[in-house]
Amino acid sequence: MTLKIAPGMVTVGGVTLSNHCILAAGVLGTTGSSLARALANGAGGVVTKSIGPFPCEGHPGPCVVEVEGGLLNAMGLPNPSREFVSEVEPLAGKPVIVSIYGGDPGEFRMVASWFEGIAAGFELNLSCPHAAGYGAALGTNPLLVEECTRAVSGLGSPTWVKLTPNVTDIAICGKAAERGGASAIVAINTVKAMRISTALKRPVLGNRYGGLSGKAVFPIAIRCVYELYEACSIPIIGCGGISGAEDVIEMMMAGASAVQVGTAVKDDPAIFQSIVSHLYSSEGVQAETIVGCAHE
Ligand code: DHB
After folding, report:
1. Sequence-ordered list of residues with C-beta below 8 angstroms from that of 8, at least 6 positions apart, any chain
2. Residue 214 CB less than 6 A away from ligand 1
3. Which of 21, 128, 224, 239 is catalytic?
4. From the CB of 137, is ligand 1 less than 6 Å away?
5. Which of 101, 135, 190, 243 is the most exposed place for a label (fewest CB within 10 A)?
6. Which domain holds residue 93?
7. 171: domain CATH number?
8. Is residue 65 included in any domain, yes or no?
9. Mind listing the pLDDT tens digit for each residue in 265-284?
10. Does ligand 1 come within 6 angstroms of the Cβ of 210?
11. Catalytic-residue membership of 128
12. Global confidence as pTM
Protein backbone atom coordinates (compact mmCIF):
# COMPACT_ATOMS: atom_id res chain seq x y z
CA MET A 1 0.00 0.00 0.00
CA THR A 2 1.51 3.33 -1.03
CA LEU A 3 -0.71 5.85 0.77
CA LYS A 4 -0.04 5.98 4.52
CA ILE A 5 -1.05 8.30 7.36
CA ALA A 6 1.23 10.16 9.76
CA PRO A 7 0.81 8.65 13.26
CA GLY A 8 -0.43 10.61 16.27
CA MET A 9 -3.37 11.10 18.61
CA VAL A 10 -6.70 11.69 16.88
CA THR A 11 -9.79 13.56 18.10
CA VAL A 12 -13.03 12.58 16.37
CA GLY A 13 -16.53 13.57 17.48
CA GLY A 14 -15.22 14.92 20.79
CA VAL A 15 -13.31 11.76 21.76
CA THR A 16 -9.51 11.51 21.75
CA LEU A 17 -8.31 8.20 20.33
CA SER A 18 -4.84 6.70 20.10
CA ASN A 19 -5.40 5.86 16.40
CA HIS A 20 -8.18 5.96 13.77
CA CYS A 21 -9.42 2.37 14.33
CA ILE A 22 -12.11 1.76 16.95
CA LEU A 23 -13.60 -1.52 18.17
CA ALA A 24 -17.21 -1.60 16.92
CA ALA A 25 -20.18 -2.11 19.24
CA GLY A 26 -21.25 -5.64 20.08
CA VAL A 27 -17.89 -7.30 19.50
CA LEU A 28 -15.76 -8.03 22.61
CA GLY A 29 -17.56 -5.17 24.34
CA THR A 30 -19.44 -7.20 26.93
CA THR A 31 -17.02 -6.89 29.90
CA GLY A 32 -14.57 -4.32 31.22
CA SER A 33 -11.70 -6.75 30.81
CA SER A 34 -12.47 -7.55 27.16
CA LEU A 35 -12.69 -3.80 26.41
CA ALA A 36 -9.35 -3.25 28.18
CA ARG A 37 -7.82 -6.13 26.18
CA ALA A 38 -8.95 -4.59 22.87
CA LEU A 39 -7.29 -1.29 23.89
CA ALA A 40 -4.11 -3.14 24.90
CA ASN A 41 -4.19 -4.97 21.54
CA GLY A 42 -4.09 -1.73 19.56
CA ALA A 43 -7.65 -0.43 19.24
CA GLY A 44 -7.62 3.39 19.20
CA GLY A 45 -10.88 3.39 21.17
CA VAL A 46 -13.60 0.88 22.02
CA VAL A 47 -17.41 0.81 21.92
CA THR A 48 -19.32 -1.38 24.38
CA LYS A 49 -22.14 -3.81 23.67
CA SER A 50 -25.37 -1.79 23.69
CA ILE A 51 -26.78 -1.14 27.16
CA GLY A 52 -30.50 -0.56 27.66
CA PRO A 53 -32.95 0.57 30.34
CA PHE A 54 -33.66 -2.98 31.62
CA PRO A 55 -31.60 -6.19 31.81
CA CYS A 56 -32.29 -8.36 28.76
CA GLU A 57 -31.62 -12.06 28.05
CA GLY A 58 -31.66 -11.68 24.27
CA HIS A 59 -33.27 -13.83 21.57
CA PRO A 60 -33.40 -17.63 21.65
CA GLY A 61 -30.63 -19.28 19.59
CA PRO A 62 -29.19 -19.79 17.13
CA CYS A 63 -28.08 -16.16 17.49
CA VAL A 64 -25.06 -16.09 15.17
CA VAL A 65 -24.36 -17.93 11.94
CA GLU A 66 -21.40 -17.66 9.61
CA VAL A 67 -22.35 -16.87 5.99
CA GLU A 68 -20.28 -16.22 2.88
CA GLY A 69 -18.60 -12.85 3.34
CA GLY A 70 -19.58 -12.30 6.94
CA LEU A 71 -21.82 -13.05 9.86
CA LEU A 72 -25.57 -13.04 10.32
CA ASN A 73 -26.66 -12.32 13.88
CA ALA A 74 -29.72 -11.62 15.97
CA MET A 75 -28.54 -11.48 19.57
CA GLY A 76 -31.58 -9.52 20.76
CA LEU A 77 -29.65 -6.82 22.62
CA PRO A 78 -28.64 -9.01 25.63
CA ASN A 79 -27.22 -6.78 28.38
CA PRO A 80 -27.07 -6.36 32.17
CA SER A 81 -28.40 -2.76 32.03
CA ARG A 82 -27.24 -0.52 34.92
CA GLU A 83 -24.99 -3.23 36.41
CA PHE A 84 -22.66 -2.61 33.46
CA VAL A 85 -21.54 0.66 35.10
CA SER A 86 -19.17 -1.33 37.36
CA GLU A 87 -17.52 -2.89 34.25
CA VAL A 88 -16.75 0.52 32.73
CA GLU A 89 -15.83 2.39 35.94
CA PRO A 90 -12.24 1.05 36.09
CA LEU A 91 -11.71 2.31 32.51
CA ALA A 92 -12.72 5.94 33.22
CA GLY A 93 -10.34 8.27 31.36
CA LYS A 94 -9.78 5.72 28.56
CA PRO A 95 -11.44 6.10 25.12
CA VAL A 96 -14.44 3.91 26.01
CA ILE A 97 -17.67 4.84 24.26
CA VAL A 98 -20.80 3.36 25.81
CA SER A 99 -23.36 2.18 23.26
CA ILE A 100 -26.87 2.76 24.54
CA TYR A 101 -30.40 1.99 23.43
CA GLY A 102 -33.86 2.87 24.66
CA GLY A 103 -37.46 2.89 23.51
CA ASP A 104 -37.86 6.68 23.62
CA PRO A 105 -35.77 9.81 24.21
CA GLY A 106 -36.30 9.65 28.01
CA GLU A 107 -34.94 6.09 28.21
CA PHE A 108 -31.90 7.05 26.13
CA ARG A 109 -31.19 9.95 28.48
CA MET A 110 -31.66 7.85 31.60
CA VAL A 111 -29.24 5.14 30.44
CA ALA A 112 -26.66 7.75 29.39
CA SER A 113 -26.91 9.51 32.76
CA TRP A 114 -25.76 6.31 34.54
CA PHE A 115 -22.42 6.55 32.71
CA GLU A 116 -21.84 10.33 32.92
CA GLY A 117 -18.30 11.13 34.03
CA ILE A 118 -17.24 7.51 33.29
CA ALA A 119 -17.76 7.13 29.53
CA ALA A 120 -15.63 9.13 27.07
CA GLY A 121 -18.81 9.44 25.01
CA PHE A 122 -22.00 7.73 23.94
CA GLU A 123 -23.01 5.92 20.78
CA LEU A 124 -26.77 5.79 20.27
CA ASN A 125 -27.96 2.49 18.81
CA LEU A 126 -30.74 3.75 16.56
CA SER A 127 -30.05 0.97 14.13
CA CYS A 128 -30.33 -2.62 15.46
CA PRO A 129 -32.36 -4.12 12.60
CA HIS A 130 -34.53 -6.61 14.48
CA ALA A 131 -35.50 -5.44 18.01
CA ALA A 132 -39.19 -4.51 18.28
CA GLY A 133 -39.51 -0.99 19.69
CA TYR A 134 -35.76 -0.35 19.75
CA GLY A 135 -32.87 0.41 17.38
CA ALA A 136 -33.99 0.82 13.77
CA ALA A 137 -37.63 0.91 14.89
CA LEU A 138 -36.74 4.45 16.07
CA GLY A 139 -33.80 5.11 13.77
CA THR A 140 -35.82 4.96 10.55
CA ASN A 141 -37.93 7.91 11.78
CA PRO A 142 -35.94 11.16 11.40
CA LEU A 143 -37.99 12.96 14.07
CA LEU A 144 -37.20 10.26 16.64
CA VAL A 145 -33.53 10.26 15.60
CA GLU A 146 -33.42 13.99 16.30
CA GLU A 147 -35.26 13.73 19.64
CA CYS A 148 -33.26 10.79 20.99
CA THR A 149 -30.02 12.52 19.96
CA ARG A 150 -31.05 15.78 21.63
CA ALA A 151 -32.01 13.93 24.83
CA VAL A 152 -28.45 12.57 25.15
CA SER A 153 -26.39 15.39 23.62
CA GLY A 154 -28.02 17.76 26.13
CA LEU A 155 -26.11 15.97 28.90
CA GLY A 156 -22.92 17.46 27.46
CA SER A 157 -20.87 14.35 26.62
CA PRO A 158 -19.78 13.49 23.07
CA THR A 159 -22.75 11.85 21.37
CA TRP A 160 -22.29 9.61 18.35
CA VAL A 161 -25.34 8.32 16.48
CA LYS A 162 -25.12 4.94 14.75
CA LEU A 163 -27.41 4.76 11.73
CA THR A 164 -29.09 1.92 9.89
CA PRO A 165 -28.51 1.33 6.17
CA ASN A 166 -32.02 -0.15 5.97
CA VAL A 167 -33.62 3.09 4.77
CA THR A 168 -34.19 4.66 1.36
CA ASP A 169 -32.15 7.79 2.18
CA ILE A 170 -29.61 7.56 5.02
CA ALA A 171 -28.69 11.25 4.62
CA ILE A 172 -32.10 12.27 5.99
CA CYS A 173 -31.32 10.37 9.22
CA GLY A 174 -27.80 11.84 9.32
CA LYS A 175 -29.16 15.37 9.07
CA ALA A 176 -31.68 14.59 11.84
CA ALA A 177 -28.84 13.43 14.13
CA GLU A 178 -26.92 16.60 13.29
CA ARG A 179 -29.94 18.79 14.19
CA GLY A 180 -30.22 16.90 17.50
CA GLY A 181 -26.68 17.90 18.45
CA ALA A 182 -24.73 14.75 17.52
CA SER A 183 -20.92 15.05 17.68
CA ALA A 184 -20.48 12.37 15.00
CA ILE A 185 -22.40 9.89 12.86
CA VAL A 186 -21.45 6.21 12.81
CA ALA A 187 -22.40 4.38 9.61
CA ILE A 188 -23.41 1.64 9.20
CA ASN A 189 -25.06 -0.89 11.49
CA THR A 190 -25.89 -4.31 10.05
CA VAL A 191 -28.01 -4.94 6.96
CA LYS A 192 -31.31 -6.74 7.64
CA ALA A 193 -30.97 -10.27 6.29
CA MET A 194 -31.91 -13.92 6.73
CA ARG A 195 -31.00 -17.48 5.72
CA ILE A 196 -33.17 -20.59 5.61
CA SER A 197 -32.00 -24.09 6.43
CA THR A 198 -33.01 -26.23 3.44
CA ALA A 199 -32.68 -29.35 5.62
CA LEU A 200 -35.00 -28.02 8.33
CA LYS A 201 -37.15 -25.90 6.01
CA ARG A 202 -36.95 -23.17 8.65
CA PRO A 203 -35.10 -19.87 9.12
CA VAL A 204 -31.62 -20.53 10.53
CA LEU A 205 -31.73 -17.82 13.23
CA GLY A 206 -33.93 -18.22 16.29
CA ASN A 207 -35.26 -14.73 15.59
CA ARG A 208 -35.75 -15.60 11.86
CA TYR A 209 -34.30 -12.21 10.75
CA GLY A 210 -30.94 -10.80 11.69
CA GLY A 211 -28.24 -8.34 10.69
CA LEU A 212 -25.50 -9.05 8.13
CA SER A 213 -21.99 -7.75 8.86
CA GLY A 214 -18.50 -8.37 7.47
CA LYS A 215 -16.85 -7.98 4.05
CA ALA A 216 -20.18 -8.48 2.22
CA VAL A 217 -21.48 -5.13 3.49
CA PHE A 218 -18.34 -3.03 2.82
CA PRO A 219 -19.60 -1.55 -0.50
CA ILE A 220 -22.90 -0.63 1.18
CA ALA A 221 -21.02 1.09 3.99
CA ILE A 222 -18.84 3.02 1.53
CA ARG A 223 -21.93 4.21 -0.35
CA CYS A 224 -23.65 5.31 2.88
CA VAL A 225 -20.59 7.19 4.17
CA TYR A 226 -20.22 8.87 0.76
CA GLU A 227 -23.88 10.02 0.84
CA LEU A 228 -23.62 11.23 4.44
CA TYR A 229 -20.46 13.19 3.67
CA GLU A 230 -22.30 15.05 0.91
CA ALA A 231 -25.20 15.94 3.23
CA CYS A 232 -23.73 16.49 6.73
CA SER A 233 -21.12 18.71 8.37
CA ILE A 234 -20.27 16.65 11.48
CA PRO A 235 -17.59 13.91 11.35
CA ILE A 236 -18.54 10.46 10.08
CA ILE A 237 -17.12 7.25 11.53
CA GLY A 238 -17.16 4.50 8.91
CA CYS A 239 -18.16 0.98 9.94
CA GLY A 240 -19.01 -2.14 7.95
CA GLY A 241 -16.75 -4.84 6.60
CA ILE A 242 -13.39 -3.21 7.26
CA SER A 243 -10.61 -5.78 7.58
CA GLY A 244 -7.40 -4.07 6.43
CA ALA A 245 -5.52 -0.77 6.13
CA GLU A 246 -6.55 -0.35 2.48
CA ASP A 247 -10.22 -0.54 3.55
CA VAL A 248 -9.55 2.21 6.11
CA ILE A 249 -8.05 4.48 3.43
CA GLU A 250 -10.98 3.79 1.09
CA MET A 251 -13.48 4.56 3.86
CA MET A 252 -11.64 7.81 4.61
CA MET A 253 -11.73 8.78 0.93
CA ALA A 254 -15.52 8.27 1.04
CA GLY A 255 -15.66 10.73 3.95
CA ALA A 256 -14.90 8.92 7.22
CA SER A 257 -12.73 10.68 9.81
CA ALA A 258 -12.20 7.39 11.69
CA VAL A 259 -13.41 3.81 11.36
CA GLN A 260 -14.78 0.95 13.42
CA VAL A 261 -13.81 -2.69 13.04
CA GLY A 262 -16.14 -5.44 14.24
CA THR A 263 -16.64 -8.72 12.43
CA ALA A 264 -12.99 -8.96 11.28
CA VAL A 265 -11.94 -9.31 14.93
CA LYS A 266 -13.46 -12.81 14.92
CA ASP A 267 -10.86 -14.11 12.44
CA ASP A 268 -7.96 -12.12 13.86
CA PRO A 269 -8.02 -10.89 17.47
CA ALA A 270 -4.76 -9.00 16.73
CA ILE A 271 -6.34 -7.16 13.78
CA PHE A 272 -5.90 -3.68 15.26
CA GLN A 273 -2.13 -4.12 15.55
CA SER A 274 -2.05 -5.48 12.03
CA ILE A 275 -4.11 -2.63 10.51
CA VAL A 276 -2.18 0.05 12.43
CA SER A 277 1.17 -1.39 11.33
CA HIS A 278 0.14 -1.02 7.67
CA LEU A 279 -1.81 2.27 8.00
CA TYR A 280 0.79 4.58 9.55
CA SER A 281 4.23 5.78 8.58
CA SER A 282 6.33 8.71 9.76
CA GLU A 283 6.46 9.76 6.09
CA GLY A 284 2.67 9.49 5.83
CA VAL A 285 0.23 12.30 5.00
CA GLN A 286 -2.16 14.06 7.40
CA ALA A 287 -5.44 12.09 7.56
CA GLU A 288 -7.39 15.30 6.82
CA THR A 289 -5.95 15.36 3.30
CA ILE A 290 -7.54 11.96 2.58
CA VAL A 291 -10.93 12.37 4.31
CA GLY A 292 -13.56 12.97 1.61
CA CYS A 293 -11.00 13.32 -1.20
CA ALA A 294 -13.14 11.11 -3.48
CA HIS A 295 -15.70 13.92 -3.61
CA GLU A 296 -13.41 16.52 -5.16
C1 DHB B 1 -27.84 -6.70 17.73
C2 DHB B 1 -27.80 -5.34 17.81
C3 DHB B 1 -27.39 -4.61 16.73
O4 DHB B 1 -27.34 -3.26 16.74
C5 DHB B 1 -27.00 -5.26 15.58
O6 DHB B 1 -26.62 -4.56 14.52
C7 DHB B 1 -27.02 -6.59 15.53
C8 DHB B 1 -27.45 -7.32 16.61
C9 DHB B 1 -28.34 -7.54 18.81
O10 DHB B 1 -28.00 -7.44 20.00
O11 DHB B 1 -29.14 -8.37 18.48
Report:
1. none
2. no
3. 128
4. no
5. 243
6. 10-58+78-190+217-295
7. 3.20.20.70
8. no
9. 999 989 999 999 999 999 99
10. no
11. yes
12. 0.98
73 is a domain residue: no
Write the pLDDT tens digit of every residue in 169-215: 999 999 999 999 999 999 999 999 999 999 999 999 999 999 999 99
Q: Is residue 70 part of a domain?
A: no
Domain count, the chain: 1
Assigned domain for 63 exists: no
Given a cut of 90, is residue 221 above it in pLDDT? yes
Whether the pLDDT of residue 1 is over 80: the answer is: no
Residue 35: pLDDT above 90? yes
